[in-house]
Structures are given as structure tokens and as C-alpha cells.
Amino acid sequence: MQGEGDRESLEKTIARPRSFIEKTIKNVTVKIAETLVNLSWITPNRITVVSAAIGGPFAAWLIYSGYGSIAVAAILLSGLLDDLDGDLARVRGVSSPEGAILDSVLDRYVDVFLISALILLDPTRHLIPGLLALLGTTMVPYIRARTEAEGKNSIATIGDRTTRFILLIVGLLSGQILPLLIILAIISNLAAFHRLFFALKPEKSASV
Q1: What confidence category does residue 18 fall into, taking pLDDT thresholds of 50, 70 and 90?
Q2: What is the domain count for the chain?
Q3: Residue 148 belongs to some domain of the structure
Q4: CB of 74 closer than 8 Å to CB of 62
Q5: What is the pLDDT of residue 154?
Q6: Domain annotation covers residue 35
Q7: Cβ–Cβ < 8 Å for 99, 48
Q8: Is 108 buried (19+), middle (13-18) or exposed (0-12) by CB count in 10 A?
Q9: Can you tell me where the transmembrane regions are (predicted)?
């Protein structure tokens, strides 16, 4: 998919890799995109859908079924495809608002599937932190999109999708699901309030 910056601002700006992990992934996906550029049957939107299917319902089923390690592999593959679709679109020069919208919407479905699966592992203990984590992961991109829809700039913050996926992978591999949900709930909601606080600050008018 197009990456969080592309998806949530509907490709108004190109997301720049900010961390070593993001740079490494981007180097790989750009090379793959250049290899696939002439294969017309492989389209960015098809990659988007496959990525969401693997990282959403399939990974969620693996988590619920107790196959945490395999779920991690599915999530990693989904994350790779998550960047590849946008890179392929840019290499072909076919980036579009429609593709960015599809990407962003399916990402939200992936978040719901994964966190719901974590909640269902132990509904009694996981329900409240899981719902809070789901609320935060939904509000972080929503606040950014709403801010940019009003013509204002948003800001980078903690709790972006890459950070959440890393936490998810660590939690699944360690089997510490309750701490994972608590950390996700805290980080994602702090990120949401951070972006909201910045968005509500009036922009200084240019002096005449």
C-alpha cells in the first residue's frame, strides 16, 4: 500500500521514510516495484487487496487459532505489500486519489481484524484495553485526514502504523498479549491527542 503519508493525505504528499526500518523496507519495495513495472496483470490495487486480506482476516484467524508465529509472518508479508503497491503506482505513474482511499480504508479494516482477534483470545481481560487500542488506532489516521481536509498541516507523531506493527509483532512473539494491548492503547491515544492538540492550534496569519 502507499504508506501512511500517502494513504491518509490522499497522496497530497509523498511519505518520506523516517526510520532505519522504513528506509530498509522502502529500498526493497522500490526495487521490487521496478521489477514488476511491466507486468500489467499485477496492479497496485490488486496488491492492496491481497495485502489487506493477508494482514487482516487471514492473520486474525491465525492469531485466534493460536498460530502467533505464523501470524507474524503474515503481518510482515502484508506490511511489505503495504509499501509495494504505492511504489508500483509511482513507478508506473498511475498514483491516484482513488487508490489512496482504497488503501486507507482497507488499512482500517486490517486494524480492526487484528485487534479484534487479540481481544477474542481472552475477552474478559482483553476487552477494555483492546477497545481503547482500537479507538486510538482509528483516531490517529482520522485526525490527520480531517486536519488535512481542512487545508491544515498535520504532524508526525508516536504511534504511527509502523510502530504499532512492531509492537504487535513483539507482543505476538513473546505471547504478552495483555501488555501489548495496554501499550497500544496508551501510545495510540497519546498520538491521537497529540495530533488533535496540534490541529486545534490556530495558524498564524501571514503579515501584510
Answers
A1: low
A2: 1
A3: yes
A4: yes
A5: 86
A6: yes
A7: yes
A8: middle
A9: 58-81, 127-145, 165-187
CA-based end-to-end distance of the chain: 42
Cell output for 206: 501571514
Q: How far apart are CA 144 and CA 161, in angstroms?
A: 13
Q: Please give the angle made by the CA atoms of 27, 29 and 33, to the nearest 5 degrees.
A: 120
Confidence (pLDDT) at 49: 96
Span 44-66, pLDDT tens digits: 999 999 999 999 999 999 999 99
Global confidence as pTM: 0.83
- Whether residue 206 is contained in a domain is answered as no
pLDDT band of 157, cuts 50, 70, 90: confident
pLDDT tens track for 73-89: 999 999 899 889 888 98
Is residue 103 a part of any domain in this protein?
yes
Give me the CATH number covering residue 83.
1.20.120.1760
Distance CA 141, CA 108 (A): 9
Taking alpha carbons only, the member of 13, 111, 113 closest to residue 63 is 113
Query: What DSSP string runs through 11-32?
Result: TSSPPPP-SHHHHHHHHHHHHH
Asked if residues 121 and 71 have their Cβ atoms less than 8 Å apart, the reply is no
Residue 33 is part of which domain span? Answer: 4-199
Specify the pLDDT at position 15. 40
Contact present, 81 and 50 (Cβ < 8 Å): yes
